[in-house]
């Protein structure tokens, strides 16, 4: 499968927003554009316009990874992803793929931390086990460790990357891996709780941007 950079970004956003902002999902063209152009949780930061978003959605439709999801009588075109069906993956695998689509190559530790809003992995070992499964299916690859880095990084194989290291040899046949934990549902913050971390603040900003885009669509 060869998705271009815009298709990769749109697919990653559709997967992310289905979980993090379900009340404004499926996403309109405006909502997708806002999600794609976020300055947080994105690498690289993009500046897609509506036409690029529409073309990317059409490309994902042709690839069997997205479809129209506008309700009866709706004047706004909306889209939802079909990544689980199209790629034949579960929630844990999809969470890792989404992070790789949105943020580029990542270490195991980065993937566990940055996928928290999408799926709760019990340990680094669980993340590695899921990555091994994806690597055997040629949906991700392990890159050679770069000079100055302590750990190698993983990258998706759904299309060309902007930059990155060459991949290392595929892993051997599987051994039994631990089953992923149940999907993560964040608990509400308690009164008087300590200040939010930078990652939590970025996540809230991203969700607010998506909600604003949805409200703007309703007012048009």
Brief summary:
The chain is mainly α and 220 residues long.
Structural overview:
- The chain has 220 residues and is mainly alpha-helical.
- It folds into two domains: 97 residues, Winged helix-like DNA-binding domain superfamily/Winged helix DNA-binding domain (Arc Repressor Mutant, subunit A, Orthogonal Bundle); 68 residues, Winged helix-like DNA-binding domain superfamily/Winged helix DNA-binding domain (Arc Repressor Mutant, subunit A).
- The chain has eight helices and five strands; from the N terminus they run αβααββααααββα.
- The chain has a three-stranded antiparallel sheet. A two-stranded antiparallel ribbon has the order 4-5.
- α1 crosses α3.
- The radius of gyration is 18 Å and the shape is globular.
- About 2% of the residues have low confidence.
CATH classification class of the largest domain: Mainly Alpha
Q: Rg from C-alpha positions?
A: 18 Å
Please state the structural category.
mainly alpha
Helix content: 40-55%
Tally of DSSP β-strands:
5
What gross morphology would you assign?
Answer: globular
Summarize the SSE layout with pairings:
Blueprint: H1 5-20, E1 27-28, H2 29-36, H3 50-62, E2 66-68, E3 78-81, H4 83-87, H5 91-103, H6 108-114, H7 124-136, E4 140-142, E5 154-156, H8 198-219
Antiparallel strand pairs: 1-3, 2-3, 4-5
Helix pairs in contact: 1-2, 1-3, 1-5, 2-8
């Amino acid at each position: 499968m060869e998705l271009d950079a815009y298709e990769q970004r749109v697919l990653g956003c559709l997967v992310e927003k289905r979980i993090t902002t379900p009340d404004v999902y499926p996403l309109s063209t405006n909502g997708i554009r806002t999600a794609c152009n976020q300055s947080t949780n994105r690498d690289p930061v993009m500046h897609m316009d509506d036409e690029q978003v529409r073309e990317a959605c059409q490309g994902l439709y042709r690839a069997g990874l997205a479809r129209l999801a506008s309700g009866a009588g709706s004047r706004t075109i909306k889209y939802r992803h079909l990544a689980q069906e199209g790629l034949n993956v579960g929630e844990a695998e999809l969470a890792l793929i989404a992070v790789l689509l949105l943020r580029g190559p990542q270490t195991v530790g980065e993937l566990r931390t940055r996928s928290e809003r999408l799926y709760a992995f019990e340990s680094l070992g669980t993340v590695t086990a899921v990555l091994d499964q994806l690597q055997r299916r040629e949906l991700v690859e392990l890159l050679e460790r770069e000079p100055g880095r302590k750990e190698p990084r993983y990258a998706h194989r759904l299309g060309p990357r902007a930059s990155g290291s060459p991949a290392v040899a595929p892993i051997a046949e599987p051994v039994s891996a631990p089953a992923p934990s149940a999907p993560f549902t964040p608990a509400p913050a308690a009164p008087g709780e300590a200040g939010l971390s930078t990652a939590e603040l970025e996540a809230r900003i991203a969700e607010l941007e998506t909600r604003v885009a949805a409200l703007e669509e309703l007012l048009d």
